[in-house]
Fold this sequence. Notes:
By secondary structure, the protein is an alpha/beta fold. It has 6 helices and 6 strands.
Amino acid sequence: MSQKVLVISGSDRQGSFNTQLAQQLAAALQAKDQEAEVYDFSDVPLLSQNTEFPAPASIVKLREDIGQAAGLILVSPEYNGSYPARLKNLIDWASRAVVAGDNETPTVLKGKKVGIASVANSTYGKFVRQHLSHLVPYVRANLMEGEGLGIRIPAEAWGSGQLELEAEQQQKVDEFLAAYLAFLQEA
Ligand SMILES: Cc1cc2nc3c(=O)[nH]c(=O)nc-3n(C[C@H](O)[C@H](O)[C@H](O)COP(=O)(O)O)c2cc1C
């Protein structure tokens, strides 16, 4: 099994702050000798039960990648107090049986170790983290304890477009990653 952590951004916005955080998390994991990548799932179509079986090639690959991953970190913006549709769509696909009607075989999400992070406005992504904290166990994945990592978009970031973390925020990132790495080590 690959030991790779897939860091999944809920935003495809050019210059997305969540994708920037995802890149920072992946780089920090790599610096700690933990394989990691920001996962590109731009080819995942909108799920329709009319075209679910056989799964499109992009979904076969998605399932392989998640199945082989050591864990996932979801880094998501907050859209109206919840998660964006593209992230839910990804999880919906991964949560489904490979063969129609097979409800016995575990999905690739079963027991997968998941951490949650968000870059958002004044809520610090509290609501999207809450919603993800409900969704992740619902699909039988293994959610890291705690409230996840919540980062408020620094005021300057809207001007510069760059997510430059303040010292206090960087400390939260470091603590989150340390906790996530410990979580990965748990049996
Ligand atoms: C449809 C929509 C709903 C939003 N709702 C919220 C919200 O509930 N809370 C919040 O903090 N920001 C909200 N925002 C603002 C986003 O947090 C902001 O655009 C952020 O930069 C998006 O993340 P990104 O930079 O990773 O794309 C919303 C944005 C959109 C497009």
